[in-house]
Amino acid sequence: MDTEIRILGIDLTGALQLYIERRLRSSLSRFGGRVGRVRVRITDVNGPRGGPDKSCHISAELLPSGMTLLQQATDANLYAAIGRATEGIGRSFARALGRNRERKRQRETVRFSRQRQS
């Protein structure tokens, strides 16, 4: 999993970066090689005016289709926003893979074998 983390308007601490990486691994590791580039963007919605709104946007690439899945969460607590967004991207991956599996099943043809009568 190739991860890019961008923090806008908030000081990135080592602990915050480790938290984001750990949450992403927890949510996406079960999908293995199906996860392409993951981008995380953390912003302070109210910027320099202050205020309680912190936002976490995650985009993740589903391989081999190249489909991009998006998840966003906003909360007064930055860690809560990150947690909700990472959980959501995991659910998005599961849904997308489930839809792909269902489409594949519908395309498969059923083959019947012919039995000889004696």
Give a structural overview:
The protein is 38% helix and 30% strand. The chain has 118 residues and is of the alpha+beta class. The protein has one domain: Double Stranded RNA Binding Domain, CATH 3.30.160.100. A 4-stranded mixed sheet has the order 1-2-3-4. Strand 1 (2-8), helix 1 and strand 2 (35-44) form a beta-alpha-beta unit. Helix 1 packs parallel to helix 2.
How many β-strand runs?
4
Low-pLDDT windows of residues: none
What is the CATH third-level topology name?
Answer: Double Stranded RNA Binding Domain
The major sheet is characterized as: 4 strands, mixed
N-to-C series of helices and strands:
EHEEEH
* Gyration radius, rounded: 20 Å
CATH superfamily: Ribosome hibernation promotion factor-like
Q: For the terminal residues, how far apart are their CA atoms?
A: 58 Å
CATH architecture, by name, is 2-Layer Sandwich
Structural class: alpha+beta
The geometry reads as elongated
Helical proportion, percent range = 25-40%
In short:
The chain is of the alpha+beta class and about 120 residues long.
Q: Top keywords for this entry?
A:
118 residues; four-stranded mixed sheet; 38% helix; elongated
Layout of strands and helices, then pairs:
Layout: E1 2-8, H1 14-28, E2 35-44, E3 54-62, E4 67-75, H2 78-107
Parallel strand pairs: 1-2
Antiparallel strand pairs: 2-3, 3-4
